[in-house]
Amino acid sequence: MSRLRAPGYEEAAVRERARRGSAAVFPEPEAYGHSVIGAVPGTAAGTQAAGGDPLDALRIVPPVFVPRRLEKLFDLGEEPLPSDVSLARTVGGFRTPLPVYVSAFGSTQVASANLGEDVGRQAGRLGIPMVIGENVVPVNGYGRLEGERDRPGSLLARIAGYLEECRDTTSGGVVVQQSTQDADAEVWNLVYSDPAVAPLLETGRLAFELKVGQGAKPGLGGLTLMDRSAAETLTDRFQITESYGPDSPTVVRCATPGTFTADILTQQIRLMRNNYPRCRVWVKLPPGRDVAEAAVVALNAGADAVSVDGAEGGSGWAPRVFLDQVGLPLGEVLSRIRRDGRVNRGLLASGRIWEGGRAVKCLALGADAVGLGRAALIAVDEDPQEGLVRLVDALRFELQLLISALGKYEVSELSEDDLWFPEATVKEAR
d(Cα 5, Cα 12) in Å, to the nearest integer? Predict the structure, then answer.
């Protein structure tokens, strides 16, 4: 029986750590591979009152006078409707029917079974770009070797699913992400030389994304749970931590995050350009305090796109303290890049995107497009055949309603003038 009470203190969390030690640093191990994990509204990363995402506090504010609507009326010969809003964009070098892409998810069971392939097929049908996340080849195989061909979630299976459904060879594209560990598996070399991927390469719809970091755990490398027996073969390449005790069959595998300076990032992008001249180049940045400088470096070095996660970005596995307290929220990331003033193309944003209001705010703050990560997985889990298609259809409708209400008819016309910044965020946001 506990004798001590600590009103106003995180007593339950302290007691959990006293019982479980470093195992309490992470979510419950039973959630690994079966849950989508990220910051939750109501935590330090999820509420404006607690220093969370400024996007949640912004309001979209239509004007009274709408001269662009008058211009559109003259062009059409009748007053325009929301359906007259054009959402087509160029996203990271790819044409897409609306400013949306599927952001990266990788190798945990939640994405690597049939869900990854189902997402690929529906993204292909929609003609929107899709990013295949890190660590897929080391965990699920490439899909060419004997024993890999029928393995659910292989990298090639996801690409094949996309190509099966993508009928428009001028729209969409596949982006293959690579991290420090993926480089050992030569993922990009495999993809670039594969005849099965040639249709994407020949139509300019293949990109490689260099992962510098991600929103859920900026500054950390990949973290995964593994069977102890499997981990024993990886001790020369990874740190293996017995967070659950020496008798547990489960251990934590920690990968290196990669080491970057402005010069190293510049050279990496130039090598990508030289080694894969027919590919687009994307760069994934974490929500670090110098994210604006990093975005400028990447674009000046020749990247076609820079994608930024806010701290709300999801993860297969991350320590709770990172989910709750580490990294800039997405609204602050976009504000810092906008204030810097040197990024005027190729900015993509992801992190708790699933509906039109948050998407319009990101677009008004300078993003070319928004990424669906956890939302895409949940939608396909709900309906493997049409879930993502319906989610995107709802998002499309909301975008057209909101942009039309602002008296605008092109995504590129959105600006910060369309937003209201509460007093508490004005100084920081502007």
Answer: 10
